[in-house]
Amino acid sequence: MVTALPRTGRRALRAATAALAVLGTALWWLLSTGNEPAPRGQVTLATGVPTGVYARYGELLKQDLAHDLPTVDLRLTRSEGSIDNLRQLVAGRAQFTIATADAVAAYKVRGEPGADRLRACARLYDDYMQLVVPKGSDVRSARDLRRLRVGVGTDGSGVQLITRRLLEAAGLDFDRDIEPVRVGIDRMPTLLRQGKLDAFFWSGGLPTTAVQRLAQRFPVRLVQLGDLTEGLHRQGERTRYYRAAVMPADAYPRAQDGQAVKTIAVANLLVTTDREDAALTQGITRSVIDSRDRIGRQVHAAQKVDLRTAVFTDPLPLHEGARRYYLSVKP
């Protein structure tokens, strides 16, 4: 016969179990980092707009870090996108962030404050450029956007950076040939549905929740961007981070009518600075790689995080802590 513990006994058992879990994590940390003390304290990760993939990825990573680094309190802060994220990082308002490789390269080329201090932890997943229009629209290429109201992303966003380059590849002037509406993915779907936009650009992982929800409520279509690849690469060094890609037919089933869509993709990087603690950076990098499958079940883009490709963080060198992690798991 099994006798149930009294309530106070159960509380004590739970507390003891939790303490053992923390102790076990601390022991694992000491063994895996050469007896360095486990990192602790508050850390901020700059993500993105609430309906974007950056924000959801950050929420799920926060859950994993609570288990992997229980003495670290990860706080999430929103932003307007990649360029804004980098500015938050170098200003000290965040210790880690996510940014696209092209945005990082542009930040460095312009000699923005703190650009020389940027370091990478990992290459994450790719963002796919998405041009969304009402299903009945005559737009079949970005070249058809002339004189239309187009959502281009907020100032300081990676979306606007690549949109400008795509429009140039299409032979259009950003300021003269379209009516640019500088709003983000948190507002563009509603404006399209209300007839206040004719189209919008978005750069994000697949699927992006805001686009997915829009397609469920309003008939939309994704426009191919594959015809711009050659023109994009003619722009030179600044566009070498883009690659031709295909959005699979099941990315947004209601918006693609069973058809794959040719587009442009760019890698996302987990970024920090050279002033960040090596032990903390090593621990966060480890969690990012180890959490791929769990996060990937809810953010499909995260399934692309891969230990074999995570070290390819051009245009940034690896942070020392990230380098230590990759050396520790090298076969």
Structural descriptors:
331 residues; alpha/beta; ten-stranded mixed β-sheet; disordered N terminus
Describe the fold and architecture.
This protein has helices spanning about 5-30, 55-70, 80-90, 100-110, 160-170, 190-195, 210-215, 230-235, 255, 280-290, 290-295, 320-330, and strands at about 40-45, 70-75, 95-100, 120-135, 150, 180, 200-205, 220-225, 240-245, 260-275. The model is unreliable at about 1-5 and about 15-30 (pLDDT under 50). It is of the alpha/beta class and about 325 residues long. Helix 2 (about 55-70) packs across helix 10 (about 280-290) and helix 10 packs across helix 12 (about 320-330).
Summarize the structure.
This protein has twelve helices and ten strands. It has 331 residues and is α/β, with parallel strands linked by helices.
Record the SSE blueprint:
Blueprint: H1 7-32, E1 41-46, H2 53-68, E2 72-77, H3 82-90, E3 96-100, H4 101-109, E4 118-134, E5 149-151, H5 158-169, E6 179-181, H6 188-193, E7 199-204, H7 209-217, E8 220-223, H8 229-233, E9 242-247, H9 253-256, E10 261-273, H10 278-290, H11 292-296, H12 320-328
Parallel strand pairs: 1-2, 1-3, 5-6, 5-7
Antiparallel strand pairs: 3-10, 4-7, 4-8, 4-10, 9-10
